[in-house]
Amino acid sequence: MRRRILALALTALLAFVVAAVPSSAEAGGGNNIVIVTNSTDGQTLANASTQVIPVPMDTVTSSNIAIAQNTACVGCHSSAVAVQILIVVGSPHYFAPGNAAVAANGGCDSCGAYAYARQHWIQISGPAVLGGQARAQIDEIRQEIASVTSSILPSDVATDPSLTRDFELDSELNALSNQLIQVVTSALQSDGVTTTTVFDGTQESAPTP
User: Where do the domains of the chain lie?
Assistant: First the structure.
């Protein structure tokens, strides 16, 4: 019964977070949402999405969300990573960043869940132009973020009670995200536009073993 209650609670939380995110048209920019749910004993699931997009709109309320959830399983692990860079063109009148990471285990034994969300907004004075070299570097970093996400198992009470692996994920993803921000910023500046950071937010979430 306890597992069923926890599973229902997690499902309700998941539905609430997804329902709260507006569509891309309403948001004034793209939403980057990664949801990983796992209920199979011994299974490891991981997903990462890295997004770099221009937002030439007067209202900017894009959301960047990562959710990892294990429910009623033994030895299952889930990782969700969302990294988003918004290139805000001109001077919009309304900014409302949405950045959230949620990781949860419901009725699980020896399970690990990890979620990471990094959202960065760059405001620029002119058109958003990223050359071929910058795009190639972005693709490379995107692949590295996906590789880190899938190669480092989230911490669990049985094999890593000190959260060493979760801290390693934090460190690796922060470093790659910083590198991505630098690549995008340098490429924009080299095209002659002025860049200003208007928002930078990071959330990391993992249940206490």
Answer: 2-205
